[in-house]
Specification:
Layout: H1 2-32, E1 44-49, E2 57-63, E3 66-72, E4 78-82, E5 93-95, E6 100-103, E7 108-110, E8 116-118, E9 127-133, E10 136-140
Antiparallel strand pairs: 1-10, 2-3, 3-4, 4-9, 5-6, 6-7, 7-8, 9-10
The structure holds FE2/S2 (inorganic) cluster (FES).
């Protein structure tokens, strides 16, 4: 009878300990694992009037959840690229003095065709299409070549 009472207490304490452990670990693990938020499927973003972007300047626009850098060069031509550096994902910026795309994190540079020129970036920036419709600038995903 004494052994079965001991077993009963062991099971009771072991079960309580497991329950307590689960109640502590579950919220911690739930907090550490980010919730799955489906990414909105964006194909085109309206940036604004053409005249709002002066030549030799740039603007960062949101394309879904991703930043895109829209650049208007000296000649008034628009270029758009992913604004996420291909090295370690810093946000790039346009430098008016050098007329290049520059990543301040590790001094990486890209030209106005998105090609990596110097510094650690291992590959070019992804290019986006730019369309002007009724004097409004639209940035869209380039068509995939199949
Ligand atoms: S993250 Fe851009 S150069 Fe390193």
């Amino acid at each position: 009878m004494g052994v079965s009472r001991r077993n009963f207490l062991n099971v009771l304490l072991g079960g309580s300990l497991m329950g307590w452990l689960a109640s502590v670990l579950y919220p911690i693990l739930s907090y550490l694992r980010p919730p799955k938020i489906p990414e909105a499927n964006v194909n085109s973003v309206k940036v604004g009037p053409v005249d709002d972007i002066a030549p030799n300047s740039a603007k960062i626009v949101k394309f879904g959840r991703k930043p895109v850098i829209l650049i208007r060069d000296d000649g008034g031509e628009f270029h758009a690229f992913s604004a996420t550096c291909t090295h370690l994902d810093c946000i790039v910026q346009y430098r008016q003095d050098t007329k290049q795309i520059w990543c301040a994190c590790h001094n990486g540079t890209y030209d106005l065709r998105g090609r990596n020129l110097s510094g650690p970036p291992p590959k070019p920036l992804d290019e986006f299409a730019v369309n002007i419709v009724n004097d409004e600038v639209f940035v869209s995903k380039p068509k995939q070549v199949s």
